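Annex B. Sample input.
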Amino acid sequence: MIDELDSLGRMQSKCMKCDAKYVAESSHGTGNMLRNIRSCKGKVYRDIGQMILQSNASGALENRPLSFKFDEFREILALAIARHNLPLQFVEYEGIRAVFSYLCPEIKHVSRRTTKNDIMKIHAKEKTKIDELLKRAPGRIAITSDYWSSITTDGYISLTAHFIEKNWRLGKRV
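Annex B, continued. Sample output.
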């Protein structure tokens, strides 16, 4: 409600949703405003199932409407699979699909091939970033490698590039 004065100098309240105006002086009571709150035409009703908790700047929890961005979801999913070394078949697990459908009923489920393609796109984007970073390095680049095998005899190799950045800080990319 917004308070303002009418032409007779009486305080009025105006509903922010339907613009209905009511006398808001203490002698008139609040019944008319309460009735408007219950029957307001501009009031938006939201299903509580469509709300999700988020933390605000002060750290307190608050509700926010769910806005689902499918492309962003696919990128986050691909990053999680790559980061945690999950199998690509993870996106096809029945339980995972049930969770995704619960969170967003109109979700389009992706296959492992789509997820593989998403991971390859992320890899290409990150590779381009590293190429640009190394091209801007003013000096030489030292590359070291490390090879090791796990208990199950899986072989691993890592390459690390060390270089001096423009601001004379040591840069390192694995």
